[in-house]
């Protein structure tokens, strides 16, 4: 209490004091005044040069500076705060990592890291000595960001072992929590026990100590006490090959290469060459070999593949599990890409020239969103007295198209094209087209003409399997010479056709019906049988009937397996383009019909019959997933009486949930499943009505668990050393189950303030007298030395 007593302040009842500047002036104003006063004193000193001896100049300058300094201090309103205190025990915070990486078995004798921590806390030194003088709080932490959790325990309980849990290590979240706790109560020190396997911001910054220090200060992450770090793990290293990161674009284009970068981490496996693959399900899409660094570390591999289907898909990157590895789970990683189209690729095969073919081909060629490949077969089955190499026509590349390149198309159109094996079209080629639709999800269209449907020899072939109409009835008519009707007729939209998206010629349904009624009639159609199972008639003949007495379908559509098909049993739809223009109108109805037909055939997401959605895209294990399914009939009306089955499958094919969805009305269904595992789950839904499938759909969700914790298996001692340096603590480690030293703690005694009293110093008589003495003394000396 020397200073208060020297100033004559009564300190009875108080045992501590604190000096404080309580002025309201801003820091910038204080600096400005200090600079002005210093400049003033300096100018005075300069003016005295040559007029007085150096000693006198120094004395005068010293008095001037002392006076100015006193005035400046008084301007900042100094005061003393007298404190009445009692001594208390300060706390020591010991934060213990319990994230999943603490289960890595690389401590002494191959123990898990968490068990090494438990052993170290079971030792008497240095814990008993610290606990004698301080209240030690043992805090188990886990989680990242908003998922951060902290649980307090006792040292004996922790020394008996603890469970690793949570998602990921985020040391910045732990430091934020410790910083807050250290300011709520007197704290002598903070101890952070971890492997340093940070998956937050600190792992990206520790390569630049300056940026790390700035980040810690800016976010107030350093505790108000010395921060000591304790590294655990790395004593018993084992070989490990891990996929750390997969870098790929969120979107890719169908049939265009998707580039994927994979960052591998190798420890104890230097100098080897290992294969790396990308697969979808059981299908391998890309593979390469990677040379691992001889001294360990990270290496980047680049792979690419060309997707053949549109939609959202999950792919898997894998590397082999090598001998001695203890963490096989980090040798694979899933990633999701949404594959979209840049153009619709159409294969158009025509049997002979016609106006209908010319109008359709021109429409397809003029659409910038369509990549058209068109072939016309001009040869007939008549004897030709020439060899193949003497003909000027190019042979149709049957095998190249239907065996090798079929998967590169989205849509196949057969227009008045006859199936004749003598042309080189074999049953295997028709089977490939069926598989292209049913298995690969492609689209198929057959248009009418004298070489189409039954007249084109497709009865009983694999093509009939994917058509929305049967050809059996038409075959018998063909034998009777009635397979094609040549009478003019005006087709009528069916009840289903009024709702089907393929028939929307205008956004207003009423206007769309008026446009259909105004279109010119057609000349003739191919006779076909009844609709196939699940098919729907969109336009029908006003008088002709099928074997069951239903109106003969002119335009019909069906979902077949994963794909879709369309049958247009007429070859004069070009009338819808030509005659309206000839009458001074437009051909927009014809263009809209084909535009919507191609959208439907190529499965535009906006035209799905089934639509699966979830309430979130990411879940934690054990959380409930709310799944909704929208169901439309083939006529695109809501279905409220369907049987909807939902199942969730892991990428390895394991079914983790299987439920029947309940109807909410208006074609909406819902169910709930619990998320489990880690990685992606595929939510699959299929709807049935009357035993007939209405379609399928799927969506992917991500289950966020501990998988990322094992991307980096080595402890990050460098990061922990930096944190200890920046936190004015010491960097320690756990070796052979013991702490390598003692954490740094504050020496001063903590106390609690019971009362306080503030004494102002700037408006006291002593301050006024001292200012007057300095001013008068300088004035007197200046007069005595002849400067007044």
Largest sheet: 8 strands, mixed
| Helix-strand category | alpha/beta
Strand-residue proportion = 25-35%
Helix segment tally: 19
The end-to-end span amounts to: 42 Å
Q: What is the CA-based Rg, rounded?
A: 42 Å
Which geometry do the CA atoms define?
A: elongated
Characterise this structure.
The protein has about 800 residues and is of the alpha/beta class. The protein contains 19 helices and 37 strands. Strand 18 (about 410-415), helix 12 (about 425-440) and strand 19 (about 445) form a beta-alpha-beta unit. It is elongated, with a radius of gyration of 42 Å.
List keywords for this structure.
788 residues, alpha/beta, seven-stranded mixed sheet, 37 strands
Please summarize what this structure is.
The chain is an alpha/beta fold and 788 residues long. Helices cover 26% and strands 33% of the residues.
């Amino acid at each position: 209490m020397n200073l208060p007593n020297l100033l004559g302040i009564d300190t009875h009842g108080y045992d501590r004091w604190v000096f404080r500047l309580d002025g309201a002036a801003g820091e910038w104003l204080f600096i400005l005044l200090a600079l002005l006063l210093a400049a003033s004193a300096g100018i005075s000193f300069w003016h005295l040069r040559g007029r007085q001896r150096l000693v006198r100049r120094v004395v005068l300058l010293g008095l001037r500076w002392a006076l100015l300094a006193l005035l400046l201090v008084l301007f900042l309103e100094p005061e003393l705060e007298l404190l009445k205190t009692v001594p208390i025990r300060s706390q020591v915070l010991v934060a213990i990592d319990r994230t999943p990486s603490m289960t890595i078995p690389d401590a002494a004798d191959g123990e898990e890291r968490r068990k090494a921590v438990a052993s170290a806390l079971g030792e008497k030194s240095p814990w008993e000595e610290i606990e004698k003088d301080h209240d030690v709080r043992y805090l188990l932490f886990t989680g990242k960001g908003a998922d951060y959790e902290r649980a307090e325990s006792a040292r004996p309980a922790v020394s008996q072992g603890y469970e690793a849990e949570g998602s990921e290590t985020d040391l910045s979240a732990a430091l934020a929590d410790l910083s807050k706790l250290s300011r709520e109560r007197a704290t002598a020190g903070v101890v952070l026990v971890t492997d340093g396997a940070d998956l937050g911001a600190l792992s990206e910054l520790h390569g630049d100590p300056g940026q790390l220090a700035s980040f810690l200060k800016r976010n107030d992450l350093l505790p108000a006490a010395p921060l000591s770090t304790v590294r655990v793990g790395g004593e018993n290293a084992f070989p490990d090959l891990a996929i750390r990161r997969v870098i790929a674009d969120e979107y890719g284009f169908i049939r265009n290469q998707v580039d994927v970068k994979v960052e591998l981490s190798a420890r104890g496996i230097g100098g080897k060459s290992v294969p790396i693959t990308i697969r979808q399900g059981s299908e391998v899409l890309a593979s390469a070999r990677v040379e691992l660094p001889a001294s360990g570390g990270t290496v980047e591999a680049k792979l690419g593949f060309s997707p053949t289907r549109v939609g959202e898909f999950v792919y898997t990157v894998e590397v082999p599990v090598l001998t001695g590895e203890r963490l096989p789970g980090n040798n694979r990683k899933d990633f999701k890409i949404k594959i979209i189209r840049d153009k619709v690729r159409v294969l158009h095969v025509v049997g002979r020239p016609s106006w209908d073919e010319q109008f359709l081909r021109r429409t397809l060629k003029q659409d910038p969103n369509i990549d058209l490949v068109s072939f016309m077969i001009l040869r007939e089955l008549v004897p030709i007295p020439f060899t193949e190499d003497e003909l000027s026509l190019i042979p149709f590349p049957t095998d190249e198209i239907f065996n090798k390149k079929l998967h590169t198309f989205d849509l196949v159109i057969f227009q008045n094209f006859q199936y004749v094996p003598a042309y080189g079209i074999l049953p295997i080629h028709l089977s490939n087209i069926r598989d292209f639709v049913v298995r690969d999800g492609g689209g198929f269209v057959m248009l009418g003409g004298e070489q189409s449907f039954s007249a084109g020899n497709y009865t009983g072939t694999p093509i009939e399997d994917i058509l929305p109409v049967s050809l059996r009835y038409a075959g018998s008519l063909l034998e009777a010479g009635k397979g094609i009707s040549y009478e003019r007729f005006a087709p009528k939209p069916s009840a289903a056709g009024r709702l089907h998206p393929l028939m929307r010629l205008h956004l207003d349904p009423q206007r769309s019906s008026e446009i259909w009624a105004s279109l010119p009639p057609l000349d003739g159609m191919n006779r076909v049988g009844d609709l196939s199972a699940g098919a729907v008639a969109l336009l029908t003949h006003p008088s002709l009937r099928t074997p069951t007495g239903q109106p003969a379908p002119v335009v019909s559509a069906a979902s077949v397996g994963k794909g879709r098909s369309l049958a247009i049993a007429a070859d004069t739809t070009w009338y819808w383009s030509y005659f309206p223009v000839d009458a001074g109108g437009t051909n927009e109805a014809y263009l809209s019909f084909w535009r919507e037909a191609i959208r439907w055939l190529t499965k535009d997401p906006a035209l799905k019959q089934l639509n699966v959605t979830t309430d979130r895209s990411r879940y934690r294990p054990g959380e409930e997933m709310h799944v909704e399914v929208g169901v439309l009939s083939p006529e695109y009306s809501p279905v409220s009486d369907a049987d909807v089955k939902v199942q969730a499958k892991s990428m390895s094919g394991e079914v983790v949930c299987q439920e029947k969805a309940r109807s909410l009305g208006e074609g909406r269904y819902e169910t709930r499943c619990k998320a489990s595992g880690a990685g992606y789950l595929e939510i699959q839904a299929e709807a049935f009505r009357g035993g007939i499938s209405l379609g399928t759909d799927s969506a992917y969700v991500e289950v966020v668990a501990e998988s990322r914790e094992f991307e980096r298996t080595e402890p990050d001692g460098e990061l922990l050393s930096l944190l200890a340096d920046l936190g004015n603590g010491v960097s320690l480690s756990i070796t052979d189950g013991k702490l390598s030293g003692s954490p740094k703690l504050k020496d001063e005694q903590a106390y609690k303030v019971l009362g306080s009293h503030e004494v102002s110093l700037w408006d006291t008589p002593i301050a006024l007298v001292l200012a007057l003495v300095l001013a008068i003394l300088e004035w007197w000396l200046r007069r005595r030395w002849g400067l007044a």
